[in-house]
Amino acid sequence: MQELKPYGDLTKLNKCRDLLDTVGRDMLERIGHSYLDLLETSSAIYEVDGSYATALFTSSYCKFLDRTSRNMCATDDDRDALESGKWLCHESCWTDASRTSIETGKPYDLRPCKGGINIYAVPIRAGEKIIGSINFGYGNPPTDEKNIDELTARFKVSRDDLLRVAGEYSPRPDYIIDAAKRHIHLAAELIGEIYVRKKTEEALRQKLDEVERFNKLMIGRELKMEEMRKDINKLKARIEEMESKG
Fold it and tell me: Model confidence over 201-235: pLDDT tens digits?
């Protein structure tokens, strides 16, 4: 099998950084693994503008097709690759699945994705506001001749390589997939709640800073007024002294 070149950290290209900075990368990854560990496929958490807040791969099949389609972009620049339309796994995860969930405000079940499995995407809300989307891949990689022929042509890979990585995946029963779907809804709610709490804490800190700055300003003014009163009293005392001598 051809060795596939790994690409860079896509979260470093995040222009929005709302979820990434507010909730935190470590927390987002922990939440992602909480449902991804049931499936061992792939997952992504997106900002509302499509920037990556988290991207996780635990399946050799998903990783193989993702890196293969990244190499098809024929550029070393990850941002150019994301915008090229040739990064097929990104197109499925973001454009076809998560962006649809954001635009409709509803869960979206993409069947199948460009890689032959399925993607389930759920919008992330902070109150009534949609702030991102969370998704995971699920289902068994195809092994039938028709789908394998289509995938080898689409991703420009050999049948042997594709069948090998497809065969490495352990099928999940329907009840596991259903549990993961319920879990990802809870994960989206949790991210939204953490986001709201962090934003509330940030707003309170800003208010506290404003109050402290105001207090310092008022104390400074009081000190200046006290100094002025002392100077005035000294001046009055000198005038009275001069008048008494006159």
Answer: 987 788 777 777 777 777 777 777 777 777 777 77
Pseudo-torsion of CA 78, 68, 90, 34, nearest 10°? -110
Residue 39's pLDDT band, with cuts at 50, 70 and 90, is very high
Residue 5, pLDDT score: 66
Spell out the SS3 assignment of the chain. CCCCCCCCCHHHHCCCCHHHHHHCHHHHHHHHHHHHHHHCCEEEEEECCCCEEEEEECCHHHHHHHHHHHHCCCCCCHHHHHHHCCCHHHHHHHHHHHHHHHHHCCCEEECCCCCCCEEEEEEEEECCEEEEEEEEEECCCCCCHHHHHHHHHHHCCCHHHHHHHHHCCCCCCHHHHHHHHHHHHHHHHHHHHHHHHHHHHHHHHHHHHHHHHHHHHHHHHHHHHHHHHHHHHHHHHHHHHHHHHC
Let me know if domain 10-199 sits in CATH 3.30.450: yes
> For the chain, what are the domain ranges?
10-199
By C-alpha distance, which of 182, 145, 193, 186 is closest to 166? Answer: 145
Strand order in the sheet with 52-57: 52-57, 42-47, 129-138, 118-126, 108-110
